[in-house]
Amino acid sequence: MHTQKRTILLATALLSAAWLSGCGTKEKLTPQQQGNTPTAPALSPQGQNKPSLEMKVEVNRDKATITFHTENFHLSPEHYSGMHVPGEGHIHLFVDGSPSRISVKENVYVLQSLSKGKHKIEATLHTNNHQPYDVKDELEFEIK
Q1: Residue 68's closest CA among 144, 141, 139, 142?
Q2: pLDDT band at 8 (very low <50, low <70, confident <90, very high)
């Protein structure tokens, strides 16, 4: 019985850790976690075209409207944190090298109240269950 309790406690701890490691609106990451190396073999099935990502930005005063264009990839807010489905997921957006990420689930995202000066954004594609696709785009712009 003692071994069974220990097994249940260990299983509960592992499930809790897995649940807590999902993506949120803004999350802290260590530099090692920001890598874009796929960690799930399901990310590159044979015969499937690799997803691509391109950002465009439109600046208006202290706002930057970012438009994300993807190919072979579908943003799926309805499946966010769900099971992996090849070719769908969400975007992680990093602003000015911050370790905090913004989870983007739509094709347009607006950054507001930006300070004057140059800014750099980086976006990476991720699966529904938060695994990286090894696809990213970077862009620089200026708030005048």
Answers
A1: 139
A2: very low
Its pTM stands at 0.69
Whether the CB-CB separation of 143 and 116 falls below 8 Å is answered with yes
Is residue 110, in this structure, part of any structural domain at all?
Answer: yes
In a domain, 54, yes or no: yes
Q: What is the CATH classification number for the domain harbouring 74?
A: 2.60.40.10
b/e map 63-76, b = 16+ CB within 10 Å: ebebebebeebebb
d(CA 74, CA 112): 25
Interatomic CA distance for residues 30 and 133, integer angstroms: 18
The answer as to whether 17 is a domain residue is: no
User: Does pLDDT of 29 surpass 50?
Assistant: no
Half-sphere exposure of 84 (CA within 13 A, CB side): 17
Closest CA to 89 of 142, 131, 54: 131
pLDDT at 12 over 80: no
For range 48-77, the mean pLDDT: 95
